[in-house]
């Protein structure tokens, strides 16, 4: 290129930069990366944690020697309160001896770093409580400061040093947890995603099974519908005949009711009249009191209450005829007007002439033939029950299918959320994206 070319060259348009795409990693590769990073964080923290725990062990051992020395130290004889001084020393020795015996220090194991950091974390919490108990044992015993001033002051300084070192251990463990927690969180999310995917296969299987059940019962319902339609067609004539017989029975029953309904009120009045005759005393001492037929009273009460039900138990209408005869004998005493008397007479004539018996026979025959014809409808009823059963099962299967679909959709949404969270964490921690 010449100098003029350089001076007068045209600026070329800038090429658009390609968006950054993070390298892909599978779920297992991502889990391996997170596990390694987490282990590195813990490995980096462990030397200081172990060193701090070692210093605590050394200082604790030194404190134990001081405490044992105090326990063996004699009280100067001749001082005031010599007995109290000995009791205070021994009581302190007993309380602290249990604390020294119960103290267990963690051991580092190179192959189990994560578990080790947890053991140091537990030790830091437990040792903090032990120190509080030790300090309380010292502060509760005011006579120790009075009789063993130098020893208690030295023990107090040791406790303060131990407390400082325990705080250092606690902070080191917390820092290790904090630095490794982001990787632990990613590992937990990976585990949750794998669990959701495992459940997704289970939910898919349930949805498929439910869908198959819907198809199976839909086909059964279709077959049952065809069978029911065929039986309904076959039963059409029987239904017409049954309806006709039902009408014959109703017509006969209605005619019976119209004929003898005028007897109901008179029967009720006659029943009361006969009962009153039986219960009232005779006017003449030598005349015996009348006794009324109990069966007749029962017939009068039955027909007065329900004509058709009474005839059910009196098919030949003999009891009805007897009641009519008794009514005719006493009609004058019952004081009916001319119009009611004529209706009563017409009804009694219908009973006596056999019209009621004839109509009842028509009704009974129609109901008997209706029952026989109804037996021909058994296949239709069976087909109807099968259709209802298939329809009910198909509806239940449809509900189960919808529930399985909803569960599958819910799980799929949870998988998407978990994958998004894992992708964000992978990009933030390793500049990687999840590859399916």
Give the N-terminus to C-terminus distance in angstroms: 51 Å
What composes the largest sheet? 2 strands, parallel
Percent helix: over 70%
Total DSSP E strands: 2
Secondary-structure map with pairings?
Layout: H1 3-8, E1 24-25, H2 27-72, H3 82-102, H4 113-140, H5 142-147, H6 149-234, H7 236-260, H8 264-279, H9 294-305, H10 307-312, H11 318-330, H12 338-352, H13 355-375, H14 378-430, E2 433-434
Parallel strand pairs: 1-2
Helix pairs in contact: 2-3, 2-4, 2-6, 3-4, 4-6, 6-14, 7-13, 8-9, 9-11, 11-12
Kindly describe this structure.
It is a single chain. The radius of gyration is 54 Å and the shape is elongated. It is built from 14 helices and two strands; from the N terminus they run αβαααααααααααααβ. It is mostly helical and 436 residues long. A two-stranded parallel sheet has the order 1-2. The protein has helices at 3-8, 27-72, 82-102, 113-140, 142-147, 149-234, 236-260, 264-279, 294-305, 307-312, 318-330, 338-352, 355-375, 378-430; strands at residues 24-25, 433-434. It is 81% helix and 1% strand. The model is unreliable at 1-10 and 285-289 (pLDDT under 50).
